Amino acid sequence: MAELLLDGGDPSAAIPHIATALQQDSESAKAKELMSRALGTPVSPAEAAAAHPPEETPAPVEPPPERKPEPGAGVGFGFSEPDGGVATMGREEPGSGHGNGPTSWSDIGPDPLMPADFPPERERVTLDDVAGMRNVKDRLNASFLMPMRNEELRKAYAKSLRGGLLLYGPPGCGKTFIAKAVAGEMGAKFLSVSVADILDSKTGGSEANLQALFRQARQYRPSVVFLDELDAMGGRRGAASSVLRPLVTQLLTELDSVEEDNEGVFFLAATNHPWDIDSALKRPGRLDRMLFVPPPDKEARATVVTTALKDRPASGIDDDKIAKHTEGFSGADLAHLVDTAAERALLDSARSGQVRPITMDDFREALGEVRPSTGPWLETAKNVVEFSGDGSYDELATYIRSQRRSRR
């Protein structure tokens, strides 16, 4: 059903069906491929091959030898506690006769994720690493970063060292990278996950995974929890699958932190469809601030092209001219443009037997093939801005007006 909905151009309706499939089998390559299609994320060749494996006759497999646990040994997983000790999550031995649990090893199923399964990313970036995007950086500093970094002002105005920020905009425009830069600016650990990382096939497993994620974030504070593709989970209640509702409830519980201290834990999320996010997630103390991340500006586009050409043979490239002719291109579109130009030079080199550098002629040809992908998103956004009327999308409205003026 999900595949039919995707083929029919209705990814929003397909997402709940795919989420149900992932709940039943979190390792399903086919379901992961469909989720990537629904969310507009590229599918790697390895994932595509796993989702459509070639038919072959299975070889006979000998039954595995019976597993005999050592006397007195339990089954559990250890993880480091902040004080250096080790905590163990135990489980009854199969066939022990205690409770109504599984009676064989195969009945146990996958284990819930532990805090150690959400390690923070080691690479640190800051806003200086984000090319261009001056307006985005200024808004981030004014509304989010400056109050958090100035301890004296924070204390004077009783500002809590916690908060939430929802990044929204067209796909492929750098929301994840900006979230990582925010963590770098704050000197915080960055824990990044997607909904697919959280979903589990067992009842209650997804909620346990989310709980483990926030437990890890509290151990590492100051920390930034970044949840990508929030619309796959936190859609409006009328449209969201009942399978995902308990997960949204658990997320609200973690954000409200009645029993846990979230001081020093910041929650950032990204979505391509902010108008589909449950309003409960956008209430004060949760994702109460929104930041529009537009397609890259001219400076950023030139930098993306320069970076993509690094370590490739190129000659006479005018980054500024390319940037001028790629307004509305996302970062992903620009990377595709460079790849297309490089393919032309590669084919010529293969025919001649000599390496030919990439030139502006290659980019002129590539610009005839590659078009900006942000158009449909911006058309939808215009309708939202026109009819919302509540001030939620003022930044988006300003951007749309500036685009109209630039075309005159």
TrEMBL record:
Coiled-coil ranges per UniProt: none
Record-annotated AAA+ ATPase domain positions: 161-297
Keywords: ATP-binding, Coiled coil, Nucleotide-binding
UniProt keyword Nucleotide-binding, yes or no: yes
Highest taxon in the source lineage: Bacteria
Renumbered residue ranges of the record's region Disordered: 23-111
Pfam families associated with the record: AAA, AAA_lid_3
GO molecular function, one term: ATP binding
KW Cell membrane (keyword) present: no
Official protein name in the record: SpoVK/Ycf46/Vps4 family AAA+-type ATPase
Gene source species: Lipingzhangella halophila
